[in-house]
Amino acid sequence: MTSNGTDLAIGYLSSSVAVLLFGSNFVPLKKYDTGDGMFLQWVLCAAIWLVALVVNLILRCPKFWPFAMLGGCIWATGNVAVVPIIKTIGLGLGILIWGSFNAITGWASSRFGWFGMDAEEVPKPLLNYIGAGLSIVRGCSLAVISGILYGSTFVPIIYIKDHSKRNDSIYAGASQYDLDYVFAHFSGIFLTSTVYFLAYCVAMKNSPKLYPEAVLPGFLSGVLWAIATCCWFIANHSLSAVVSFPIITSGPGFIAALWGVFIFKEIQGLRNYLLMILAFCIILSGTLCTAFSKI
Fold first, then answer.
1. Above 80 in pLDDT, residue 201?
2. 160: closest CA among 63, 75, 67, 243?
């Protein structure tokens, strides 16, 4: 297998693992009372940071770029709304909606070079456009906002990588391997979630609502999310963000919908089952178009 073929295989395998874990990472929390979600978010983000610490040690502590923390700050801000979304519109629908806006924001910013990034080209742009379009054909305000924030989370890292090739940039010589930025990115997540939690404690007059029974499920959810995101970093490196974003952001919605159908009974009735099958066909078509646009 050629080097390019190896990269593609690694990229698609990483994308598959990310899709499975992103679609399942909230499952451990579904049956537990998580209240307003502020305490849960802090537990989840603590688990995320611990995974990042392990990865950073395995990579022998690559250079820390503080700007890469900004993406983590953006993600943590979007994540504040996750628990209310799941409680109000369900796990499956919530992931479908924010995944759609996650996909369009992340894909478009990479494809067209928004926010100072270099525009990315693919051998078959028409297939890439069709794949991205099919991946976001789903459409609740919190989920939309979360999706847009989630879609911007990799912008600082891609910006650093793009500007590392320019000798006049402060990021000249920065690593091109996405996983080298995971510790800074996850540190931004943990720092921001801690600030939000402390602000919440102040607002609650030092009487925050704590839910001890959600600690272990929340920690497990954080670990699953962190592993999935590490796989996403690898997929970004192997495939480029313009390909990985539509695949990884559209697939979890279907996985979550399967959990909703077979375990949590959120989706019932023949009509809803047929709509879910139609959604799966659209997502699969979008994923395949996006994948083939790279070949």
1. yes
2. 67
Cα separations in angstroms, 286 against 5, 103, 112, 126, 143: 21, 11, 19, 12, 21
Structure tokens that stand for 282 in this block? 């659209």
- Among 39-53, 151-165, 177-191, 205-219, the range scoring the smallest mean pLDDT is 151-165
Give the sign of the dihedral formed by CA 250, CA 264, CA 82, CA 45: negative
- Determine if residue 113 is left, alpha or beta; phi over 0 gives left, psi from -120 to 50 gives alpha, anything else beta: left
Give CA–CA dist 288/293, Å, rounded: 8
H-assigned helices in the chain: 3-22, 38-58, 69-79, 82-89, 91-112, 125-135, 141-151, 155-163, 182-203, 215-239, 241-262, 270-292
How far apart are the C-alpha atoms of 2 and 99, rounded to whole Å? Answer: 33
Q: Determine contact, residues 51/230, Cβ cutoff 8 Å.
A: yes
In this structure, what is the dihedral angle of CA atoms 267, 229, 98, 133, given to the nearest 10 degrees? -100
What tokens appear for 59 in the block?
Answer: 């990579």
Q: For 229-256, write each residue's pLDDT tens digit.
A: 999 999 989 988 778 877 787 777 778 7
Tokens of 47: 């688990």
First and final C-alpha spacing in the chain: 14
pLDDT in tens, 98-128: 555 555 555 555 555 655 556 566 566 666 5
* Structural domain boundaries in the chain: 3-292
Full DSSP string of 1-30: --HHHHHHHHHHHHHHHHHHHHTTTTGGGT
Question: Within 13 Å of residue 284, how many CA atoms lie on the same side as its CB?
Answer: 7
